[in-house]
TrEMBL record:
Residue ranges of every copy of the NAD(P)-binding domain listed in the record: 5-307
Name assigned to this protein: dTDP-glucose 4,6-dehydratase
Organism: Maioricimonas rarisocia
UniProt-listed PANTHER family: DTDP-D-GLUCOSE 4,6-DEHYDRATASE-RELATED (PTHR43000)
Gene3D superfamilies: NAD(P)-binding Rossmann-like Domain, UDP-galactose 4-epimerase, domain 1
Gene name of the encoded protein: rfbB
Length: 341
């Protein structure tokens, strides 16, 4: 039995990773550590309640005593760090929480995992650390880091800490970087779930600038499969990029969503562009394909329709987030019985 400790497992990608592992494997046990900040929703894992192979501990990765206790109790074979503040707009308003969680939190985890002699550490990062591309070219693992937002700068700093621990302490870490994810359970401030839920309710869809920014879209399950492949077959000290090979301008994605939802383009509202908005991201994932035997499997058209269907079928989930009711789920369901603080 492989024992994993997952930080940030109540977020979008972390919860999908936990579900993926527990539903595709019977030889894994997971301890999920999450602070349950605004983007951490324990309801994301409600369908796995009662699973004996999943334990939850509420706590902050910046709290050294908590992290040490969680590691001692769960005795994991590997730690996967999904925990992060991740919304660029919020980082522009206040970068403090991003530096605290993404940098200090990673440093605390690294030190605690060194002390506990954890066998493998996987840092889940982002392609945004590479900065912005022009009309041509792709990000490779050798692309210099050039972050352009406080969020991406905090993730780049965390990556550099992980790299330094590998080289200074021979720490068994791997870094993964991924393009834009989409799929179920994504917090509805992100583009695709925001636009789906707004369109379903005939609300405006706010498009930055002229909508010319380009993103490479990958289904969250393809990303989770990549993380699992890196965990199992990746080489210590290496970086692995994951992308969906699906580049779209934001305006084209917006129009596609409206067409699939049978809503008029008159719902589009062009708004003032985000400060420092990166023009284009695109990933070269050939290294992961060669070394890990991984490749994206979910066709974008199929994945997008399934995502639309999920948000349509789970409108109450979205509404509970928008109203803030989701933040009471932990206390209502568990009353602190899952090792919370």
């Amino acid at each position: 039995m492989q024992r994993l400790l997952v930080t940030g497992g109540c977020g979008f990608i972390g919860s999908n990773f936990i579900r993926h592992c527990l539903t595709t494997r019977d030889d894994v046990e997971i301890t999920n550590v999450d602070k349950l900040t605004y983007a951490g929703n324990l309801e994301n894992l409600a369908d796995l309640e009662g699973n004996p192979r999943l334990q939850f501990r509420r706590g902050d990765i910046c709290d050294r005593d908590f992290v040490q206790a969680a590691l001692a109790e769960s005795a994991p074979d590997a730690v996967l760090n999904f925990a992060a503040e991740s919304h660029v707009d919020r980082s522009i308003l206040d970068s403090g929480p991003f530096v605290q969680t993404n940098v200090t939190g990673t440093q605390v985890l690294l030190d605690a995992c060194r002390e506990a002699e954890i066998g493998r550490f996987l840092q889940v990062s982002t392609d945004e650390v590479y900065g912005s591309l022009g009309a041509e070219g792709l990000f490779t693992e050798q692309t210099p880091l050039a972050p352009n937002s406080p969020y991406s700068a905090s993730k780049a700093a965390a990556d550099m800490l992980v790299r330094s621990y590998v080289h200074t302490f021979e720490f068994p870490a791997i870094i993964t970087r991924c393009s834009n994810n989409y799929g179920p359970y994504q917090f509805p401030e992100k583009l695709i779930p925001l636009f789906i839920s707004n369109a379903l309710n005939d609300r405006p869809l706010p498009v930055y600038g002229k909508g010319e920014n380009v993103r490479d879209w990958i289904h969250v399950i393809d990303h989770c499969r990549g993380i699992e492949a890196a965990l199992q077959r990746g080489q210590v000290g290496e970086v692995y990029n994951f992308g969906g090979k699906c580049e779209l301008q934001n305006i084209d994605l917006t129009r596609t969503l409206l067409r699939l939802l049978d809503k008029p383009e008159s719902l589009i509202r062009y708004v003032t562009d985000r400060p420092g908005h990166d023009l284009r991201y695109a990933i070269d994932c050939s290294k992961a394909e060669r070394q890990l035997g991984w490749s994206p499997q979910v066709d974008f058209a199929t994945g997008l329709q399934e995502t639309i269907d999920w948000y349509r079928d789970n409108a109450e989930w979205v509404e509970r987030i928008r109203s803030g009711e989701y933040q009471t789920y932990y206390d209502r369901q568990y009353g602190g019985r899952l090792g919370g603080t």
